[in-house]
User: What shape does this take?
Amino acid sequence: MTTPTRGADAALAYLRDHADEHLKGLDDLLRIPSVSADPELRDECRRAARWVADELTRIGADHALLTDTSSHPIVTADWLHAGPDKPTVLIYCHYDVQPTDPLDEWVRPPFEPRYENDIVYARGSGDDKGQLFMHIKAAEAWIRGAGGSPVNLRFFFEGDEEHDSRPSEHFVANHPELLQADICLVSDSDMADDDGTPAITYGLRGIAYWDVKVSGPMQDLHSGQFGGGVDNPATVLVQMLASLVDADGRCTVPGFYDRVRDLTDADRAAYAAQPFDAEDWAQRIGVSGPKDGERGYTLLERMSGRPTFDINGLSGGYSGEGSKTIIPAWAAAKISTRLVPDQDHLEIERAMIKHLEAIAPPTVEVTVTPIQGGQPLVTPLDHPGCLLAARALEKAFGKAPLFHRSGGSIPVVAAMDTLLGLKSVMVGFASPNGNFHSPNEWMPLANYRGGMDALVHLWDELGGVTPGELRGT
Assistant: This one.
């Protein structure tokens, strides 16, 4: 393992000397309720973007800029003083957060950070404000503590990751000059476990998401008068949805698996190396055990290396207290699929619409509206960025990282690969059970401190290679 340079030692010392100050800054960011899906919090999202841009300027980054989109602003900045012979690293994170419902399950209001047992509880502490903040502090440590970074830096922080991938993908397509780099470093993922084992995420699933509405009579009808004579939209909807998955958990949409790239021996070896206890996993999420799933694949493989179909929400009819005997005029569902290489989310989107329209009875009207989509992504395990990241993580956490694929999606990362040819290394520092989209989201401060150290070491490692080595040229 390489020895840290003097610059890295100075940057690490800076982090130690300013640790209390940095935690206060983290609190300031976490207090901004930047829920991207809530139109009433649009100004708060912009406030978060402005906070990030101002902080980048304060630490010494150049050209901090807010670019308006069809939704929330994108923040970019750069520090390009390492020289043309040094790599340029693009750093991607997001400042928006998930909605906080149900509020009554939070121990403390979600935007009032709570510290307990060396853990910070707040919405965004792990996903993804905490990780974004770590990158800013690592940059500050190099620029202010060591007199300059060993690599050129570009920053790309968006505000729609939890809401809509289209604004950021449009930005990537239309502003490549702001994103020119030799490698992208992404921190929007997690560690291998809750005990400080680091991880490198080398794959992301894609996503396709739809609203489905089944409409029948012009208004709700009395079920005693019309039952047996009118197709019930709610019944039709659940029958259609149930038919989309077979007994083995495979999606039944024609062509769904045509382009699925199967797992390699290296993939399966990486899965087998994961410290995974299925019984503990089930207990943590409050279920009696894992479901039966696609044959020939382990539970871990099914949860990130294979495509899936899910119903995300159902509505329609009466759901109040007591009874109301009606045939509802309509019923609706939100559905999604997680996709793997080499599936194309636009192809899957069209195939799902065609299939749902084909299986609907002629007595109802079916409307299928695409909501969100993004492509899957895999970075080769032998990419030099992965190898350098592994060394940096081991220096910071004292143990070698594990390599895993994520079941989640970050559509803009795939867009950068497709549109810019930019490979990404994903190093995440949140705990896998950190309640990212649930009440009482949490992040260990040990991960926060170790993550900043790891980023300092990683930039040190990247500074020792040429741009061409990272690009494979």
Notes: The chain has a mean pLDDT of 95. The longest helix spans residues 42-59. The chain has two domains: 6-205+376-471, 206-260+307-373.
